[in-house]
Design a protein that fits this description.
mainly alpha; 2 strands
Length: 76
């Protein structure tokens, strides 16, 4: 999958994946969605973003953890 809205620049935000060269980390958007924020609420908080940015941030996060072993608590 090709990500057109996720950018990585070592001289910006320490190379953290951001959206469209903005100083808006993908992880921030994913965390807002995980906390229950709707896309429209996120767009109201960050007017430079577009709905497709939120969608691609989630897809990027899903791809980042696909088929990787993640540390889980014992018994899970």
């Amino acid at each position: 999958m090709e990500f057109r809205r996720v950018t990585v620049n070592p001289r910006q935000m320490g190379g953290v994946p951001c959206l469209r060269g903005l100083r808006m980390p993908v992880a921030t958007i994913v965390a807002l969605v995980a906390e229950g924020q709707a896309t429209n609420d996120i767009l109201a908080l960050y007017p430079d973003l577009e709905a497709e940015d939120v969608r691609e941030a989630l897809l990027f996060a899903a791809e980042a953890v696909r088929e990787r072993a993640l540390p889980l608590a014992a018994g899970e």
